[in-house]
Specification:
Length: 364
């Protein structure tokens, strides 16, 4: 086992899952905090699932030596489910691009007073220009925001928890399950893990297929990364619980709390969230377009611009509404992938036990 490898793998796992929706607090609010105390239990369950599935996906990637995202999906899901998942993930990429444009508009509106539609157009134009001009260096710089983003969000949520003016049992009375993205807290936790795994599984499996990591480091990295994600969800959830009476209808809960508790940090946090939104929008729009049209095709630029315009139209539904609609749908379909992982794990376990029994019988 290599300690540095374990930390690198865990950090990559956390980095893939943590994005603009996570940092804004909207995802945590809709899948956990609206359920009050039950959401606390849901966040613990989510952490356990993230740890187990992260462990399995990385180890399975090592077993099958997956070299590409498409191969990874088909390898773990089978021919027919793999084909369905491939299509689902493609359209999810488009959906997330729309959510990021809506999120960018929401940040610019909530923090700087820019009209939401204009804010979304600004993010769209920057995204398309970046892709057309191939400004990869800008993306690599923005990706460095992730550690600061985590520190800022955790600071805000911890401060809100420490300085709350009402007991958490009182705040629980403000729980609003009817506003949540799921019918109950347990299903909400499953959906949250499911749609995140559907988006990250190909990356984790491909990472596991690399030759530079040993199998033990991969497994421990997956466990540590998943446990870290669960701790982050729990911390942000408890922080928002302390302000639950004020968060109904707020598009960006963490930014709202920053303006209340640490006003000096709010503008910085908003810029960092915008950076994450922009980073995600670029990645999602590019990946979606390349799934439809080859990047070497003469039609690629036209397809890119058209995809961006369609994503903008979808963003008009609003950030919180899109988070509460697109992610749960992806979560339901992600159950196919979770089921495939469990079946694959069971088959591998049975195969190993059979091989061991055969070896024992031969030795006797």
């Amino acid at each position: 086992m290599n300690g540095k490898q374990v930390l690198t793998i865990a950090g990559a796992y956390v980095g893939v899952v943590v994005g603009a929706g996570f940092a804004s607090g909207q995802e945590i609010l809709q899948f956990f905090t609206y359920f009050g105390w039950w959401g606390t239990l849901g966040s613990v369950i989510a952490g356990l699932l993230f740890a187990w599935f992260g462990y399995q996906l990385l180890r399975l990637g090592s077993d099958v030596k997956a070299a590409s995202h498409k191969q990874a999906i088909h390898q773990i899901s089978g021919k027919y489910i793999g084909w369905i998942m491939d299509i689902v993930v493609t359209f999810f990429l488009f959906g997330v691009a729309g959510i990021m444009l809506a999120g960018g508009g929401a940040v610019l509106n909530q923090q700087f007073g820019v009209p939401v539609t204009l804010g979304s157009i600004i993010i769209l134009v920057l995204t398309i220009l970046t892709l057309l001009l191939k400004m990869e260096k800008m993306i690599s710089v923005i990706s460095l925001f992730t550690p600061f983003l985590l520190i800022a969000v955790l600071t805000i949520t911890l401060v809100s928890y420490l300085y709350m003016n009402k007991d958490l049992s009182v705040m629980n009375s403000f729980a609003s399950p009817e506003k949540a993205a799921s019918s109950n807290w347990f299903f909400g936790a499953l959906l949250y893990v499911s749609y995140n795994l559907a988006a990250t599984a190909p990356i984790l499996i491909t990472m596991g297929g690399g030759v530079s990591y040993n199998k033990k480091s991969l497994g421990l990295g997956g466990l540590l990364g998943g446990a870290t994600l669960g701790l982050l969800v729990l911390t942000i959830h408890l922080g928002m619980m302390s302000k639950l009476d004020q968060l109904a209808g707020v598009e960006l809960p963490t930014l709202f709390m920053a303006n209340q508790l640490l006003p000096w940090l709010a503008p910085i946090l908003s810029i960092v969230i915008l950076g994450m939104i922009f980073n995600t929008a670029v990645g999602m729009l590019y990946t979606f377009t390349t799934r439809v049209v080859s990047p070497t095709s003469a039609k690629f630029k036209f397809a890119l611009i058209l995809s961006g315009i369609l994503a903008y139209i979808s963003s008009l539904a609003g950030f919180s509404k899109l988070v509460g609609t697109v992610y749960p749908v992806m979560g339901y379909l992600g159950f196919l992938l979770m089921g495939a992982v469990v079946v694959t794990w069971f088959r591998v376990k049975v195969r190993k036990e059979t091989s061991m029994n055969v070896a024992v019988n031969q030795s006797n």
